[in-house]
């Protein structure tokens, strides 16, 4: 899959494609249905498929402190899009210049001059351009004038539940990992590189891998039973994700994972952590001894879960 960062990097060979536009946060089964139609239309027309995404996501630009927690970082999103057979991703920097483009300018500069789009798949509630003035009807009029086609992506429902990134976040927030996996088509995962931490876990008889999150907010907090992928090897474990209220904290969310029955140096390695069940909420303990007791109970519960 080819990644093009910014309109200025588009070249003549990037013209003529079938495209869709959106955040694609989580690349859930609703997104997967859109991408399946995208592949089908691209095959019919004999042109590449292209997904247009924004970085940061628009709500993160307008309201960074209240924007929804991301399900996937950019790197993971790109990997998931590649796995769905997308040929090309155009990643546009959402900045004041892009925000000020009118709907007509967005169509002309991005879709026509930039991509030479032959067919466009978007949701029927898709809004774009300055002050969100552009909508599906605007795109349909532009398509009729400029000679491309546009189709509204239908909402995907599973067992009567509308599939959306918001619904996945809601499932994660209440620890319903079965529903989250159903909506995503895979277990919810967080991937990152192992960094040096405070080494406190060693004092608590529970050495942990401190995994870099690189995100402002996370969609879940607490202690969880997890499985960890290390270069294709799967290891059971228990993870804490949160601000670590019982120790000196920087106020940022951290992901710390204790791997059961694993020995080896993980520093600098990239791990993928899949979440399966919530053990408890994150809480503040009065002493390190109390924290140590709680961690031992968490590990015992995780062992019982995985042995079962």
UniProtKB/TrEMBL annotation:
One biological-process term from Gene Ontology? FMN biosynthetic process
Give every Riboflavin kinase domain span: 183-307
**What keyword terms does UniProt attach to this protein?**
ATP-binding, FAD, Flavoprotein, FMN, Kinase, Multifunctional enzyme, Nucleotide-binding, Nucleotidyltransferase, Transferase
This protein's record includes keyword Transcription: no
The record's section on InterPro entries has: FAD_synthase, Riboflavin_kinase, Riboflavin_kinase_bac, Riboflavin_kinase_bac/euk, Riboflavin_kinase_dom_sf, Rossmann-like_a/b/a_fold
Please provide, alphabetically and separated by semicolons, the GO molecular function terms listed in this UniProt record.
ATP binding; FMN adenylyltransferase activity; riboflavin kinase activity
Q: Which reaction does it catalyse?
A: FMN + ATP + H(+) = FAD + diphosphate; riboflavin + ATP = FMN + ADP + H(+)
One Pfam family matching this protein: Flavokinase
Listed EC numbers? 2.7.1.26, 2.7.7.2
* Pathway(s) this gene product operates in, as recorded in its UniProt entry: Cofactor biosynthesis; FAD biosynthesis; FAD from FMN: step 1/1; Cofactor biosynthesis; FMN biosynthesis; FMN from riboflavin (ATP route): step 1/1
Which Gene3D superfamilies does the entry link to?
HUPs (3.40.50.620), Riboflavin kinase-like (2.40.30.30)
State what this protein does.
Catalyzes the phosphorylation of riboflavin to FMN followed by the adenylation of FMN to FAD.
What's this protein's family per the entry?
Belongs to the ribF family.
Q: What is this protein called in UniProt?
A: Riboflavin biosynthesis protein
Which gene is transcribed and translated to give this protein?
Answer: ribF
